[in-house]
Amino acid sequence: MIIAPSILSADFANLAADVKAVEEAGAKYLHIDIMDGHFVDNLTFGPNVVKALRPLSNLFFDCHLMVENPEKYLQDFAAAGADLVGVHIEATKHAHRVISKIHQLGMKSEIVLNPGTSIEFAKEVLPLVDSVLIMTVDPGFGGQAFLEETVSKIAEAEKYRKEHNLNYQIEVDGGINDQTIKTAKAAGATIAVAGSYVFSQNTPEEQIKKLIEASKQVEK
Ligand SMILES: O=C(CO)[C@@H](O)[C@H](O)COP(=O)(O)O
Ligand SMILES: [Co+2]
Fold it and tell me: Is 195 in contact with 142 (CB distance < 8 Å)?
């Protein structure tokens, strides 16, 4: 399973050191939460932070856009060095166009679903995307509890992938710890985002190791 530490819970005054620490600990992805204060009730940062971190890291930059009309910012994230852009299906009227644009800009695409949004709503674009992100909390904040009722949706995304011979990754985001990662993997998740679990206790190295070990306990 790929572990994607979320810098939302990192030390913003020492971001470079935290990014280095997770890279050395064996993470392959860096999850970067972009919030605009409209789509969610929180503000974080924009492509300028992605640009500043890019020369410091070889991690795969997974940019989760919690913004209205994400199409406006795709060019900026591509120029900043994003590897993947995730857009909420609830945040755009033009999901198909947004996904095409992400690919034209040379990035991997991801469609993101809030806990209240069904797989049904995203089915037309599932054949097009590189990844599907199932939110396992309502977006906007770190440190929330994993919503068990989202597990059936992870399983549904995996079932649909197999039935239609598609090859998207299934990412989960929110409330991931050394227990919930097992539940998510058993249901079909292949990428796990973790913010507070990685950055708010012990060292990021210890926490990432625990996540990797926990996920290995589940066969897939
Ligand atoms: O997108 C989000 C929150 O909206 C996440 O990526 C959080 O950063 C996850 O934080 P934890 O639940 O792991 O603390
Ligand atoms: Co996120």
Answer: yes
Burial 53-90 (b: 16+ CB within 10 A, else e): beeeeebbbbbbbbbebbbebbeebbebbbbbbbbbbb
Pocket test for ligand 1, best of 3, 6, 9 (most atoms within 8 A of CB): 6
Asked whether the ipTM of the predicted complex exceeds the cut of 0.90, the reply is: yes
CA distance 177 to 174: 9
CB 73 within 8 A of CB 47: yes
User: Residues whose CB is under 5 A from ligand 2 (ion)?
Assistant: 33, 64, 173
pTM: 0.98
CATH topology of domain 2-216: TIM Barrel (3.20.20)
Position of tokens 């539940």? Answer: 183
Contact 7, 32 (CB under 8 A): yes
Nearest to 131 by CA among 113, 153, 149, 155: 113
| pLDDT (tens digit per residue) in 110-168 | 999 999 999 999 999 999 999 999 999 999 999 999 999 999 999 999 999 999 999 99
Is position 18 annotated as part of the catalytic site?
no
Cβ(161)–Cβ(151) under 8 Å?
A: no
Alpha-carbon distance of 60 to 50, in angstroms, equals 11
Task: Yes or no: say if 18 and 7 are a contact pair by the CB < 8 Å rule.
Answer: yes
Six-digit token pair at 10?
A: 């990192």
Whole-number pLDDT of residue 219? 87
